[in-house]
Protein: Homeobox protein cut-like
Organism: Propithecus coquereli
Amino acid sequence: GSVSDMLSRPKPWSKLTQKGREPFIRMQLWLNGELGQGVLPVQGQQQGPVLHSVTSLQDPLPQGCVSSESTPKTSASCSPAPESPMSSSESVKSLTELVQQPCPPIDTSKDGKPPEPSDPPAPDSQPATPLPLSGHSALSIQELVAMSPELDTYGITKRVKEVLTDNNLGQRLFGETILGLTQGSVSDLLARPKPWHKLSLKGREPFVRMQLWLNDPNNVEKLMDMKRMEKKAYMKRRHSSVSDSQPCEPPSVGTDYSQGASPQPQHQLKKPRVVLAPEEKEALKRAYQQKPYPSPKTIEDLATQLNLKTSTVINWFHNYRSRIRRELFIEEIQAGSQGQAGASDSPSARSGRAAPSSEGDSCDGVEASVEATDGPGAADAEEPGGPAQREEAPRPAEKAEPPPSGTPGPDDADEEGRPRPPPEGPTDGPGPLPNPAAPAAGEDAATSAAPPGEGPGAARDGAPRSSALPSTSAPAAARRPSSLQSLFGLPEAAGARDSRDNPLRKKKAANLNSIIHRLEKAASREEPIEWEF
DNA sequence: TTGCAGTCAATATC
DNA sequence: GATATTGACTGCAA
């Protein structure tokens, strides 16, 4: 529809917004033959010309700013560099070059001395940096992303983490300078990267940036420069503010009040962050166990029972679902890499495990359900024997185990044989449908009842067990394993192959359980059977 | 309308 | 001070 509209009633350039211009640029590129025929997966010819032309439009990566060619060569330390070359192929090189090219010209490339002519930059720190904000850089990077071969997100983040830690570079700096993201996002990204095939175009962007950055031989130096500049700026500011007496606003973060005027008022508007109490979280988790996709009514009930805003409950479910999903991804990846080489797990393995554990565990429902209860103490007491340990023990044990498929749960058998829905796919689609209508069974009753006192544990046990492992990544992984490696020379393959692993499966199962449950319910109930996944 | 992806930014933790 | 967690928000797609 949009295309039709655009083709028949194009707006004049001057009337277009940045975003609105994008399609026209794309069209132009396409007309020039620079976008290749498909746009996407580009096999053979893609890179070279395309990229160039694209980049020529504007600089792809923010980072460019820190012109550093002149910088000596501390490279020695520059650990990252070494690898890149080996892996890189022509195309990669071109990418890398692209990344760097823009830099010099852009700013102060002049005498090797990064601008930083003053701290003023501080206030608008961003400017120099790259934030993709500007439509420009965004566009070009998008092109790069579109052209990019499949990347090993896990491997990339792993290397980035190594480089950052090895060189004592912070996530914040890296994020703001290289990725145009905040620290929290970077942390999240590095700890729980999603597999390439699961990423949207936008989601791939930071990985492309990271890859390009890794391929940049001067990456570390550049960042170091930035770091120094920042420090200087900070010192200056601090200095001046001090000397100027106190008046200066509290070191309000890097905001850039160009003029004095605004700062104050904002504070007022800020609404306090909601922090859910452990009990509330537990209740929500339990509710999730029983119904990952609660009906509006259920949500309302939960909200009232927990004395939360419905929007909070809704958000919580959204966040929880997507975060659990992500955990599963990394689980898979880890499982996969583990299968082949023990080492790989190092960084993300840790982080992945650690953080998620809390939520992740809950995802089986196991831990969550138990622990929470009302009296933490009581609950805990019980745990030891049961669930609690299940969580811990199972892993190792199961790991050794062969295919969990054998898991006791009769469910498994069933699921295996069936179409088996993708983790969420089915969920989203059909999942919700049946519920609203028929959920009667246990749903609402259960859910609503659940939170507070609840605990029939109905879901928790039954659910988790099964092990249907939705295709999610499996297929994808299999799909096209290497295109990227060849290009970017990333050692590890993306995706997970040996996802046979249990803990993983369990989680998925947990997640899927309710879905399956509903499906079965619906099926037995003669719901038209058009649920295919 | 609903769900999701991707982020931000406030907090918690380390 | 750096990193991790997480509630909320935005934009998009079905």
Notes: Residues 310-340 of chain A form the longest helix (31 residues). DSSP finds 30 helices and no strands in chain A. Residues 34-139, 246-267, 341-501, 520-533 of chain A have pLDDT under 50 and may be disordered.
